[in-house]
Design goal:
single chain; mainly alpha; MetI-like fold; 2 domains; 13 helices; 0% strand; globular; disordered C terminus
């Protein structure tokens, strides 16, 4: 009889959720940030709305009007955007993806290893390298713009396959700063245990340190991807524009050429260019604050 009896599984105790009371200050901040978000989202909404309208209706007065049955143009602007101009937009999309992916991967690998070595090797040379990386964040791009263009031409860095090294130089400052802050919070005893087990420096970094650095790793990847994908000045100054164009350069080129300006096509291309980065951001946004906070806390 006892064998046939079924013992009911114990129910796991769940702690009751306690709702946090909103103070008047929190309510004011919520309303304030909601209003600010509307102002930030308004330009994107206007571009999206006008991309579905007929080009002749986009005037100073008609820019803010919603599409009607007479002004609605459907997806024609998006279709025309792929065929507009002598340089296919597909090539620009390809170069943007290639430059962004290769540059971000190179920045992540090189700067994470550099930050780990700088933090663990407390030498004067490492401190100098660290402060040079921090100083590079202060120097505006416009200061070195002319020199960069000349150097890139002389060193043959004006192709999508070599532009990643230029981005490595400009993106190293922020990446080294964030990675160094996080490495300081990692107990060194973990690395010493790996060394006792016979792991070399590379194995210790890739199998022990790198998995722990995941939050900051993803945060840096998001920030660098958003910067490189939307960047206009650096590719414009270095790339051979007769052969290679990124999406921002392509849009600017269409805006200046061919004798007339099709505003709806330009807005359609702008929407298409921001969709990949928005999808990437929303897929990884939860790691941004986690990575920044963990990098700011020193253990």
């Amino acid at each position: 009889m006892a064998d046939t009896m079924k013992i009911a599984p114990k129910k796991k105790y769940k702690e009751p959720k306690v709702k946090k009371k909103q103070t008047p200050g929190m309510v004011v901040l919520t309303v304030l940030f909601a209003i600010l978000s509307v102002f930030y989202f308004a330009p994107i909404f206007l571009v999206l709305m006008n991309s579905f309208k007929i080009n002749s209706t986009i005037t100073d007065k008609g820019f803010f009007n919603f599409p009607t049955a007479e002004t609605f143009n459907g997806l024609k602007s998006y279709i025309d955007g792929f065929m507009f101009g002598d340089y296919p937009i597909g090539y620009s999309i390809l170069w943007s993806f290639l430059i962004t992916i290769t540059s971000v991967v190179l920045i992540l690998i090189c700067t994470s290893m550099c930050a780990w070595y700088i933090t663990r090797s407390n030498s004067i040379a490492c401190k100098i390298i660290y402060y040079l990386c921090i100083f590079s964040m202060v120097v505006p791009f416009q200061v070195v713009m002319a020199t960069l263009s000349f150097t890139a031409d002389r060193l043959k860095l004006n192709t999508p396959w070599t532009l990643m090294f230029v981005y490595l130089g400009f993106g190293a400052g922020l990446a080294v700063f964030m990675f160094s802050g996080f490495v300081k919070s990692i107990p060194i005893e973990i690395e010493e245990a790996a060394d006792v087990d016979g792991a070399g420096p590379l194995r210790t970094f890739f199998q022990v340190v790198l998995p722990i650095m995941k939050p900051t790793f993803i945060s840096v990847a998001i920030l660098e991807t958003m910067w490189i994908w939307n960047d206009f000045l650096l590719p414009y100054q270095t790339l051979d524009r007769q052969r290679f164009m990124t999406i921002p350069i392509h849009i600017q080129f269409l805006n200046q050429g061919y004798g007339h300006q099709d505003t709806t096509v330009l807005m359609a291309l702008i929407i298409l260019s921001i969709i990949p980065i928005i999808v990437f951001y929303f897929a990884c946004q939860k790691y941004i604050i986690e990575g920044v906070v963990s990098g700011a806390v020193k253990g």
